[in-house]
Amino acid sequence: MAKNLGVKPRIGLLGTGPWAARTHAPAIAGHPGVEFSGVWGRRPEAASALAAASGTRAYEDVDALFAASDAVALALPPDVQAPLAVRAAAAGCHVLLDKPVATTVPLAREVAGAVEAAGVASVVFCTLRFAEPTARWIDEQAATGGWFLGEAHWLGSLYGPGSASAYAASPWRREKGGLWDVGPHVLSVYLPVLGDVTGITAAPGPDDTHHLVLRHASGASSTATLTLSAPPEAAEAALTLYGTGGRADMPRWDGAMGAFAAAVDALVTAARTGEPHACDARFGLRITEILTEAEQRAART
To answer: Are 80 and 108 in contact (CB under 8 A)?
Structure first.
């Protein structure tokens, strides 16, 4: 049974890596409307250090953190995240998930099913859906309609020459590449604006690069080039729509801290109202289904 939220909901954090330390923990600790109930990590010493830096406590037993929390945020590799999200939902905790929810359809389906069975709220933290400039832009373009084409380039340089990014040490990103790491960002924009994906063509490019051509329920088509291996000089994240109203370029956004705080607010609202958020576990499952099909099609070319 889903937990009822008090005046100040208690939110715990699962994960201690760079993403958790740079975004999740400071955003929760600095949020005036929630209580940071604690940190759990696969490395207890890292959990203790992050908890101390964030003014909360560390838990060695994840179930104890579930018991002490009304909701949990997860900043873990996707296929580590998924079974823990299932356990959190079964404990009645509302869940703030990272993208992708999982890299296999069965695991993502388990998460969505557990959320539904427990009646808990869920939000998947797709940054562009919560960063103020891009979230507003997405809503405006969805309301405008009339789009027939989308073009996206998300050229990350995580594995480009000379990269010293802390995220480059992530085994799952190294294995799954840009398709799975930045693909969810692009899909989180295309789906609410152009409609669900009804057809996929995919081809591999250099290193981890993937080129996608998508057909949408609205009749529109879109393209996406995704990689983490671009040279730093070529790195960009851009998405453009073309339609009866002309051309619309997605605006820039400023980091992830504010976006994550907005995602926390969205989870609290969904939990209190019982109204599912548009970017919930079911939406996360759909993203996993699309990326799985794209990966399979690219592997056959």
So the answer is: no
